[in-house]
Amino acid sequence: MMNAAATTLDIEATLGPETDEEDWQFCWDRLLEVSRTFSRPIAMLPGQLRVATTVGYLLCRIADTVEDHPTLSMERRDRLYQAFLDVMERNAAPETFTEPFSEIPGDSPEHHLAEELPRVLHVFDRLPASMQETCRRWVVEMTRGMQLYSHRPTDDSDLVVLENLSDLERYCYFVAGTVGHLLTGLFLDHIDDISAADRNTMNDVAESFGLGLQLVNIVKDQTDDLERGWCFIPQTLAEHHGLQPTDVYKPEHRDKAHDVVQPIIDRAHDHLDDALEYTLAIPASEQSLRLFCLLPLWMAVRTLVHAEGNDQMFIADEPVKISRSEVESLIADAVEHVGDDEALRRRYQELWEG
User: Fold this and answer.
1) Distance of CA 52 to the CA centre of its chain
2) Distance CA 87, CA 81 (A)
3) What is the pLDDT of residues 121-161, one digit of tens each?
4) Domain annotation covers residue 140
5) Which of 94, 128, 162 lies at the terminal end of a domain, its last residue?
6) Is 86 exposed, middle or buried (0-12, 13-18, 19+ CB in 10 A)?
7) What does the alpha-carbon distance between residue 65 and residue 196 come to, in Å, rounded to a whole number?
8) Which among 342, 348, 313 is positioned nearest to 330, based on CA atoms?
9) Where are the beta strands (DSSP E) in the chain?
10) Residue-number span of the structural domain to which 314 is assigned
11) Which residues face 230 on adjacent strands?
12) Which H or E run contains 208?
């Protein structure tokens, strides 16, 4: 179904006759490879917005690939970050990034995506100037933040440990709050008729939407993050309960571990409340945009409900996730109520209680 959504898009009518259909198809196929989950709501977006969101997401994933690559020294990572920034900010040739990147071993979909940056940029360059500027601004902000956090020293266990809840939210701003701003810029570029109050609401809580989703991911993916050298349990939260951050993964500290994580869950809940207000600020007539927001919001709420008090958060290979049948039910529910603000507010509260 996803591939059909891409191939039925008239790319020439959407972006102009100079746009290469094969490059667009390449971008869509890479999106399916690196995030099949995210591709589902993107497929609902109208033509030009779908292309801009796809390309913006892929550019973010390329920056993320530099951040996450396990073999890079700090010096080499810095050179790649700078090369990518030069491409995005100064219109440097994309080969200034891809040539040094191609020397790094790797066979993941993300790795292949980064090696093909020129093809992504071929589509990016055909977007309207306002959409290009939105993507450029926030991809650069994300990349600079990732580079900043890549210089964090490790502890005795060779882990990067964040200091406090504010430090955690600052990290989440760079990797996810920026995405909230990017999408909001693209959405507002697309929406023709929106009140000043609703426009202000979207701008005001765009960052919070991104932080909420990222904090949910951090809660559910803690053990995966440990494997790549990051501990997102802030030092001060653990110390408040007489623990070190990595103690939360020891069975003998299970009760305290839940107390340590609870402030992160509470903060995520607050941000998801803002995400609902963001979604309802989108005109009800823009159902595809609302669904784009509702699907991850509904799933984030249910994931957080499932995670709270659940020991699986602290056990490797015991993923915290909602069932496939519940996912399908959430999608159907969002589609049914997408244009009804009162029903959406009611359903949002019911999701927390169910």
Assistant:
1) 15
2) 10
3) 999 999 999 999 999 999 999 999 999 999 998 888 889 99
4) no
5) 128
6) middle
7) 37
8) 348
9) 160-161, 230-231
10) 152-354
11) 160
12) helix 196-220
Residue 44 in tokens: 């609902």
User: 21-33, pLDDT tens digit by residue?
Assistant: 889 999 999 999 9
How is residue 153 annotated by DSSP? P
Whether residues 193 and 316 share a domain: the answer is yes
Lowest mean pLDDT: which of 9-23, 173-187, 295-309?
9-23
- Encoded amino acid at 254, one letter: R
> Using a CB cutoff of 8 Å and minimum separation of 24, what contacts does 34-39 make?
34/58, 34/61, 34/109, 34/110, 34/113, 35/61, 36/2, 39/2
Number of domains in the chain: 2
Residue 53: closest CA among 39, 33, 65: 39
Phi-psi region of 166 (alpha: psi -120 to 50; beta: other; left: phi over 0): alpha
| Alpha helix positions (H), 43-116 | 47-68, 74-90, 95-101, 109-115
Residue 51 lies in a domain: yes
Confidence of residue 7 (pLDDT cuts 50, 70, 90): very low
Is the confidence at residue 4, as pLDDT, over 60? no
Tokens of 42: 């993107």
- One domain, residues 59 and 193: no
Indicate if the alpha-carbon torsion angle 265, 269, 274, 276 is positive or negative.
positive
R_g over Cα of the chain: 20
217 closest CA partner among 202, 232, 204, 238: 232
CA neighbor of 347 nearest in space, from 270, 278, 294: 294
Lookup result for tokens 């103690």: 247
**Other residues' Cβ atoms within 10 Å of the Cβ of residue 17:** 8
Q: What is the mean pLDDT of residues 345-351?
A: 97
- Tokens at residue 230, please? 């990051």
